[in-house]
Amino acid sequence: MPTGTSDVLLRTEGRAGIITLNRPRAINALTHAMVRAVDGALTDWEHDPAVTTVVIEGAGERGLCAGGDIRAIHDDARAGGSASAAFWRDEYRLNARISRYPKPYVALMDGIVMGGGVGVSAHGSVRIVTERSRVAMPETGIGFVPDVGGTHLLGRAPGELGTHLALTGAHAGAADAILTGLADACVPSAELPALARDLTRLPADEALARHVVAPPAGVLAEQREWIDACYSAPTVEEIVERLFDTGVPAAKETAETLLGRSPAALKATLATLRRSRALTTLEEVLDLEYRVSCAALSTPDLVEGIRAQVVDKDRDPHWTPATLAEVTEADVARYFDAPADGDLGLAAASGAGAAAGTAAGSATVPAADPGARAGA
């Protein structure tokens, strides 16, 4: 049986295998050892007939997972090391595995769910948010680009809602996460323990039917008109210009938010998102994102962004280049060069089987909202 580590608690109860990310002081930020522990549990439970459902949750009150351990990435980037690329290789493989896991994989996305936290939850077959959920891919604020399959998910959101979330890093609450395809259904936070207990003794769809409710109202549906009109522009510069010109206060605030993000990361994010839309499978997108992530590791903005937001916490990053106009097409093209140590190669390794998705592991999610989907 899987045993986990102090940072990943693993147990079986009834018919469920339960993964608890256990770094509450760090909002359960993922380390390389944690990724390996989760992957090991999935291996063991995949072949255990007593386990029919896998559940992932976060310890503490703040959230499921705030992302990867970006302090470690900061230190590795400053040293010119290879630890981050090795971490991403295993993390992205785990993300792909979750997406095609043959048993229901239920993610309890309570509280903060960002970056790598989206990767270990939003590719699952059953994604549950609560009234406390704050789901986001905030990478442009630290000079990075959405990864862990984030551009696959956001690239398939209705209209340009995913582009808005990818460039700004804005948080999506329960209704907006469901609308954009990052989650399936809402369960009140106070009922999650009861849901978890029901998952240990009932099939996932029966357990969920007892607890799903309509989510609190979101904001993206009513903002869709100006978001679609502005973010359909061909460049980040024109997106910002359109946002300022709408006359809508929320759009103007969004433009000002974008002007505070890394210019290079914004342009690389838009290019990655649009390339990902042309790809068919998650594995193909993860291969693309691996190239972009490795390239970002050698840019000055990643180290500077993490310094400003997490290390020194002065919230005053000095980006290089400093403006959108100074980021050239060649600068963006370099994000898509093959890494020195080689590509990830997930699509080639998985073949047609990965494209089949998670049909065997899907559960029908009782939809209290018409945006909820069935399965993954």
From TrEMBL:
SUPFAM superfamilies for the chain: ClpP/crotonase (SSF52096)
Q: Would I find tRNA-binding among this entry's keywords?
A: no
Its Gene Ontology biological processes? Answer: L-valine catabolic process
Any Pfam family from its record, for instance, is ECH_2
Which residues belong to any copy of the Enoyl-CoA hydratase/isomerase domain?
A: 17-336
Gene3D superfamilies in the record, alphabetically?
2-enoyl-CoA Hydratase, Chain A, domain 1
Catalytic activity annotated for this protein?
Answer: 3-hydroxy-2-methylpropanoyl-CoA + H2O = 3-hydroxy-2-methylpropanoate + CoA + H(+)
Q: Which InterPro entries match?
A: ClpP/crotonase-like_dom_sf, ECH_dom, HIBYL-CoA-H
The record lists the membrane-crossing segments as none
- Protein known as: 3-hydroxyisobutyryl-CoA hydrolase
Q: Which organism does this record belong to?
A: Streptomyces nymphaeiformis
